[in-house]
Amino acid sequence: YGAKIRAPHALVMTFLFKSGSLREKLKSIAQATYTHSRNLAYFVFTYKGLLAVQSWLQEEKIPFHSFLAACIGGWLVFGDNNPINSQIIMYLLSRVLFGLSRLAVEKGYIPQPRQDPFPLLAALVWGTVLWLFEYHRETLQPSLQSSMTYLYEDSEVWHDMSDFLIYNKRTDSK
Where is the signal peptide (predicted)? Predict the structure, then answer.
């Protein structure tokens, strides 16, 4: 599963934003795919193993078992702050926040919104990320910085249609 998810992403991101030889790019794609796949496999093994141990010790499965097993697995497997783990955690964080919001409405902790809150969320997220990009760029993840630089700065330089197909940052442009 990790390979299925990571390989296409690494392929696109590497050829869009990384320099180097074809061999170096292919090695980078393979390494990212391997790391993602390995970490997911280690996590699943750790999580399922800890769930089984807890169920065996208490002779029943309780909801806290899942939380504890995942916390331990997350610490052990994803605790190293590297680009792959960082991206996985950010991916999960956004989905966790959406899930917790829905759960809070479902349980009655917050009222059901009268209107779809998504347009407001979209406005706040885009406003915040571009403010961070313009004034506190170093706080953003490197791949997001690269994407935003490509979109909002490199796009100010125009050569020809190849700028849209390959990369619009040329050494002869400055």
Answer: none
Residue 54 backbone class (left: φ over 0; alpha: ψ -120 to 50; beta: rest)? alpha
Query: Per-residue pLDDT averaged across 145-173, rounded?
Result: 72
Mean pLDDT of 34-61: 94
pTM, two decimal places: 0.75
| Joined tokens for residue 102 | 């829905």
The answer on pLDDT for 174 being more than 50 is no
Torsion of CA 87, 88, 94, 98, to 10 degrees: 170
Average pLDDT, the chain: 88
3-state secondary structure the chain: CHHHHHHHHHHHHHHHHCCCCHHHHHHHHHHHHHHHHHHHHHHHHHHHHHHHHHHHHHCCCCHHHHHHHHHHHHHHHHCCCCHHHHHHHHHHHHHHHHHHHHHHHHCCCCCCCCCCCHHHHHHHHHHHHHHHHHHCHHHCCHHHHHHHHHHHCHHHCCCCCHHHHCCCCCHHHC
Give 11: exposed, middle or buried? Use CB within 10 Å, 0-12, 13-18, 19+.
middle
Number of other CB atoms surrounding residue 30 within 10 Å: 13
